[in-house]
Amino acid sequence: MIKAHCSERGGVSAARTAVLGLLLSCALPAWAEAPFNFAGTPGQLPKNVVPTAYRIELVPDLEHRAFSGSEEIEVDVAQPSATVTLNAVKLTITRAAIAGTGGATAKVTFDEKKETATLHFANALSVGHHTLALNFSGPIPETPAGIYYNDYPTSAGERRMLVTQFEAIDARRMFPCWDEPLFKATFQLTVTLPADLAVVSNTPAAHAERIAAGGGVALQKTVFEKTPRMSTYLLVLCAGHLERIHDRSAGADIGVWAVAGKAEQGRYALQAAAKILPYYNSYFGVPYPLPKLDLIAVPGNFAAGAMENWGGITFIDNDLLMTPSSSSEGTRQDIFSVVAHEMAHQWSGDLVTMAWWNNTWLNEGFASWMATKVTDALNPDWQYWLRAHADKERAMTLDARPTTHPVQISITDESQIGSAFDSISYLKGQAFLRMLETYLGEDAFRDGMRHYMKAHAYSSTTTADLWAALQEASGKPVADIAAAFTEQPGIPLMRVDVACRANETVATLGQQRFTINDPKAAALTWNVPVQIGVIGSSTPQTLLVKGAGTFSAPGCGKAVKANWNDTGYYRVVYDAKNLAALTAAYPTLPAADRVNLLSDEWSLVAANRAKLAEYLGLTKHLGTESTYVVWSDVITRLHELDDLARDLSVRSAFRHYAIKVLRPVFARTGWDAKTGEGNETALLRASLISALGTFGDEAVIAESRRRFAAFVKDPATLPANLRTPVIEIVARYADKATFEELRRMGQAASGTEDKLRYYGALAGAQDPAFIGEDLAIARTGEISNGRVPFFLIQLAQRSATPDAVWKAVVAQREPIVAKMPEEFRHALLPNVAAQSMNAAVGQELLAMPEMQATPGARYEAARAVSRIAEQAELRKRLMPQLSAWLAKR
User: Is there a cis peptide before residue 168, judged by omega within 30 degrees of 0?
Assistant: First the structure.
């Protein structure tokens, strides 16, 4: 699954010490990973009765927003039992029995807190095979979790679509089931709906028949083919006024479904999928096992970015559909990457599934790595691995904090599952796998993956199973390296001290844990594959460093660089002389090493291991820099400093400096695309315009307003790649009339990409008077329920007064939170609070009853408090340094 992540801005709280015990329990691993074992897998449900097959008949009533259903569940009973416990939420079970004439019936009791239903039989079920028969019913809400409805506008009026979103624990909202990934079974779904609606599920329809109409509406019963063995969270059902375009690739029928009139906007995604499928078939060594693969666009109301349902992947439509006139280069590349991510899950996650949510990363980190790999391979001019540096930086930022957790996070309560879907699981997982692949070699890594897929197909695994397959294929100590990076939290910091001895360059490597604002962090060690070499040499060495190590090369006088090509997951600190030599050599370094050097130096500043002047001194070497990934990293740091300077007198001088840094490169790119320029230039131009506008460049602001005025009259005048930065700048400095104009344009937008562009811009309006307007947008349904939390987090991030946003959201939280899926409800307030630098906000958050209600909520609150503390400490320490540095200029 792709989840929409919002970056954090915000930070010393007196409440920090109150949560250290919680943080320690969340951060340190509670187990030594073992290979998959059914009996030993964690979970909430008993394992004495296990499902093997579901036959489900569903009759949704979209008009009245409810459904009725029946199912037969084939089960194996391992021990005699008079009770059967499975999951059910907001379902009414009207009958439960052993299938067959005269079968024993059961009394049903519910545990709402545990989200279970227990069937009580008068006599114990014997060991062996049985079939349970259940009749049930439930609501179809608008909240995008489980089975839900999605209303969307069309030129012919509002239409309604039926959608499901089951990951992580919401299949139980549509049918009683064993809703844990361990319990794999086959599914055969039968659905009765109005005959004018297209119905899509995991497998093709086996047959469909018209049935007697009720209320004047013709109905159709569709029976889908049986699925392979899979987990409940991978089942999908979508229905609506949908159209399909399709193609064939590698023996599979690939289709894109979208609401009527928009299917052709999925042509690019369809072409991408057709290219990706044969690549994956070859790489995994196991052909895609289903006869079809559908990509389904959900208009607006979708809480994730995309979801990897086997054979029927769902997407928020702006991650699947594009319009050449208004979709940017960034959108085009994102679509390819998201499709690649979800298709990677068809193997890693669907064919082979993590046994429990503590190994969420095994699905998500792997899919992120695989998607970047295939995107880079099939689009080499995008330099996708180079740009993945930003993903790694997001993961490392989280991983340095007191609230980090191991990649293999301990999940003991289902409320904690949402916390596993974060940058540690996705992006640290991706970065570690890339480092491991670099160490093992691409061929050995691929061979290990092929063995892993074949050995565990249609079953479950733990991370230990993956390490065993890779170790067997490579003959290298995979488990010894991997355990430290996945079973304990944090980042290694490699110390590199360089000396000249007997006409040899000798680098001594030492290791410790890298942390930010965490003086009580546990001391940890890693077995780190360090790529290290002398600048000017094309053959770096790889050293396995556990504690200390030594590197040597003939001759003296040249700089030594560790983390060659930026493929490692660790920080590096150099002695002063070698750092000076690296800085002098900066223009000659490859782009990956340039951005790695800059990022490490900034991280040392954040960790109070270097002065801000040392990082800012590096920026003087950017005069001829033109690489997007480098400027993207620098712009991110400039934004961070600008946020820290909020309400301080130094901000004006800093913004003048930031504009001075960015103006020369913008002069080279200009406002308008040039014939033959690469896609990277388009991305760089948009980033520069956005940053210069944020920092108050009057010329950029004026030109943005001019271009926006022309756009209002004729949309064709504003190229797609400039629409987001121009509209965001205009909104940032909007008066009342401009704000309302942008809001009307958002309301009138026919596509999700355009709609989110306008509302995201409105969230950045700097006048605090508009906070109330933005809250009204979130509260009244102007944007879909699935996007509300992200909109409010954007509002807090981009506002000139995040504490005022916090107060407004807290005051109106009840009607807002009611719109959200359960997993978002305990995360919204912490993510809004985390944008503050006020300790009182953190204390207020911790005092809220809802933030103490579950382990998951307590952890999210603790992360926010830690973030507030971090930002406040940085502000106190760095702003005087910034003032002094600027005064010398």
Answer: yes
What pLDDT, on a 0 to 100 scale, did the predictor assign at position 217?
84
Query: Mean pLDDT for the chain?
Result: 93
State which amino acid sits at residue 468. A
CATH annotation of 491-584: 2.60.40.1910
The whole-angstrom separation of Cα 69 and Cα 50 is 21
Instruction: Give CA 672 to chain center in angstroms.
Output: 32
717, 718, 721, 725 alpha-carbon torsion, rounded to 10°: 170
Q: What are phi and psi of 320, to 5 degrees?
A: -130, -35
Instruction: Kindly tell me if the per-residue pLDDT of 469 is higher than 60.
Output: yes
Q: Where are the domains of the chain?
A: 348-487, 491-584, 611-733, 735-889
Please check whether the two domains, 611-733 and 735-889, share a CATH topology. yes
Q: Tell me if residue 610 falls in helix, strand or coil.
A: coil
Strand (E) or helix (H) holding 97: strand 92-98
Q: Measure the CA–CA gap between 364 and 349, rounded to whole angstroms.
A: 8
List, for residues 392-425, the tens digit of each pLDDT value.
Answer: 999 999 999 999 999 999 999 898 898 888 999 9
CA neighbor of 325 nearest in space, from 675, 717, 683? 717
b/e map 358-376, b = 16+ CB within 10 Å: bbbbbbbbbbbbbbbbbbb
Q: Among all chains, which residue has been given the structure tokens 């049935």?
A: 211
Query: What CA–CA distance (Å, rounded) separates 418 from 826?
Result: 9
- Class of CATH domain 611-733: mainly alpha
Lowest mean per-residue pLDDT among 16-25, 647-656, 699-708, 721-730: 16-25
Q: Which two tokens stand for residue 532?
A: 């290290």
Q: Which parts of 217-283 are beta strand (E)?
A: 217-224, 237-240, 242-249, 252-259
User: In whole angstroms, what is the distance from residue 553 CA to residue 484 CA?
Assistant: 29
Per-residue pLDDT tens for 758-809? 999 999 999 999 999 999 999 888 888 888 889 999 999 999 999 999 999 9
Closest CA to 723 of 691, 761, 694: 761
Each residue of 54-107: pLDDT tens digit? 999 999 999 999 999 999 999 999 999 999 999 999 999 999 999 986 789 999
CB 524 within 8 A of CB 488: yes
Q: How much is the CA Rg of the chain, to the nearest whole Å?
A: 28
Q: Select from 658, 721, 664 the least CA-distant residue to 692.
A: 658
Q: CATH number for the 735-889 domain, one of 3.40.50.80, 1.25.50.20, 1.10.760.10, 3.40.50.450?
A: 1.25.50.20
> Which residue among 33, 115, 342, 437 is the active-site one?
342
- Taking each helix axis from N to C end, the angle separating 771-779 and 736-748, rounded to the nearest 10 degrees, works out to 20
Calpha distance 33→53 (Å, rounded): 30
pTM of the model: 0.94
Tokens of 80: 């005699």
Cis amide prior to 473 (ω within 30 degrees): no
Q: What is the maximum span of the chain, computed from C-alpha positions, in angstroms?
A: 94
Q: How confident is the model at residue 3 (pLDDT cuts 50, 70, 90)?
A: low
Give pLDDT, residue 157: 87
Q: Is 809 helix (H, G, I), strand (E, B) or coil?
A: helix
Compute the 3-state secondary structure of the chain and give helix, strand, coil in percent, each to the nearest 5: 45, 25, 30
Say yes or no to pLDDT of 563 above 60.
yes
Query: 348-487, which class in CATH?
Result: mainly alpha
Band of residue 569 on the pLDDT scale cut at 50, 70, 90 = very high
Rounded distance between C-alpha atoms, residue 463 and residue 473, angstroms = 16
Question: Is 342 a known active-site residue?
Answer: yes
